[in-house]
Amino acid sequence: MPKEEPEEEFLPKEPVDLPAGRQGLPKEPLDLPPPDPLKSYPEEVKTLLSWASPGRPFRKRGKQYYLTSLLIMLLVEVILFLFSQYLLMLVVASLVFVAFALNTVPPRDFHYRISTEGITIEDHFFLWQELYDFYFRKIEGIDVLHIRTHSFIPGELTLTLGEIDKEHVKRVLLPYLPYRELIKPTFMEKAGDFLSKNFPLENTKVAS
């Protein structure tokens, strides 16, 4: 059999000059043009207003408030007992207990923040696109900011202003939300105002 000749290895005898990766590039950094002042760039998030105040309006009640409430509750309970409305008796007692708890335990302070992107209440954030309009009301002698939302839940945000001036808050919110100057009270609100004015549970002079 003929002797097989060894195959020639087609390998370069000398190293191939690899192309330099940075050939043709300038050695010095390019002079970039300055930013165009007319071009719009994204703005940073800025805090417009922040404060801390109680989470809900609170006014310390006197003994007359609790005694009057208990007498009214007992009268209602007797009427319901005569008509064998035991379930309603439990409901009335529960409502009175909740009312006593809310008027006895003062609320803790909440932290509020209004920025260029939205409103923060504690650890909840709402974009301006999620909010609809705002108005003010005075509850228990305290100015309260009400902000209505587009969605059904939560529907409305309530922020107690504390020592913050109402007009200052209005000037901050007007560039982002429309201000509702007049809010028509509901039937329940009218009934509550009528009862509180004509049949008060306590004398305000005594409570103070």
Description:
It is a single chain. With 208 residues, the chain is α+β, with helices and mostly antiparallel strands. The chain has one domain. It is 30% helix and 22% strand. The protein contains 5 helices and 7 strands, in the order βααββββββααα. The strands form 2 sheets. Strands 1-2-3-4 form a 4-stranded antiparallel sheet, covered by helices on one side. A hairpin with a 6-residue loop joins strand 6 and strand 7 (156-160). Helix 1 (63-82) packs antiparallel against helix 2 (86-104). The longest helix has 20 residues, at 63-82. The protein is elongated and about 90 Å long. Residues 15-27 have low confidence and may be disordered.
SSE topology sketch:
Layout: E1 47-54, H1 63-82, H2 86-104, E2 109-115, E3 118-121, E4 124-127, E5 131-139, E6 142-149, E7 156-160, H3 166-173, H4 187-198, H5 204-207
Antiparallel strand pairs: 1-2, 2-3, 3-4, 5-6, 6-7
Overall body shape: elongated
Strand content: 15-25%
Strand order of the largest sheet: 1-2-3-4
What would you report as the Rg, rounded to the nearest angstrom?
36 Å
**What is the total domain count?**
1
| SSE series | EHHEEEEEEHHH
Spans with pLDDT under 50 lasting ≥5 residues? Answer: 15-27
User: Helicity level, as a percent range?
Assistant: 25-40%
**Mean pLDDT score, rounded?**
82
Count of alpha/pi helices: 5
SS-based class: alpha+beta
What is the terminal separation in angstroms?
124 Å
Number of E-state strands: 7
Largest sheet: 4 strands, antiparallel
